[in-house]
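User: Quick sanity check before I run a bigger batch. Here is a single chain. Can you write out its predicted 3D structure?
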Amino acid sequence: MKTTATYLLLPVLIMMVGCQVGPDGKFQWNRPGDSSTQGEGGGAGPDLSEATSGESTVDQLTTRIDELNNDLAQARRQFRVTANELDLVKQQLKDANARLANNSGIDLSADTASSSTTLDAVSIEGLVIGRDGNNIRIEVPRSQLFNANTIALSNEGKTILDRVAAAVKQQYPKQQVMIEGHAASGLTPNDDHQQAIQQTTSVYNYLVGMTQLPANQFSLVSRGNNHPRYSTASDQGREANQRIELVVRPDTF
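Assistant: Done. Predicted structure follows.
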């Protein structure tokens, strides 16, 4: 009786310890972790690693988007600051230019507006007339103005000055005129300056006293031999450098 009971309980014990009968009728043991033994509802359960990894990636992307948005907002603020600074620099430059113009000594009043104009060159028979910037230079050789070895005007010189005065009255009635004396006697510089200033004085006296040009229209200067126009290597050049130049300026008197 005991033996019979033992045989009846043996299959039950085998199934309880994890053994099953295979298709070939042989016993097979369930091995831990063997996927072939996992039946419906009998597996190791769902794998949570992929879900956890997915949630972590989303969190990382969200964090990165927030960082990019913060960077963009900061860049926009910096751009606004830079634009404001640029506007400030432009305004400062504009103010500096305005101050420079106001302090440059330029008088834009109506009385001196003519100083920025360009004078038209006049034509006087027998004389060389040229433009020097905005000025007009009327050149008269000494030999055509004065008697030899004197500062006295010759008759030819008076005739030339009459033509000069007529041109000034017609063309430059309000312009300032500088009478420049140039001498090259070959003596000392002081002698050249003395001769030049005496000659300019003679020309000034004639223009004011005889042609009735206003005295305050003229100024006198002696250049001596400091500004030769022609070569000083020859007698002809040195003689040509001895001259009177009337410099007509745009400035009015």
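Residues 30 and 86 are 80 Å apart (CA to CA).

User: Great, the batch can go ahead then.
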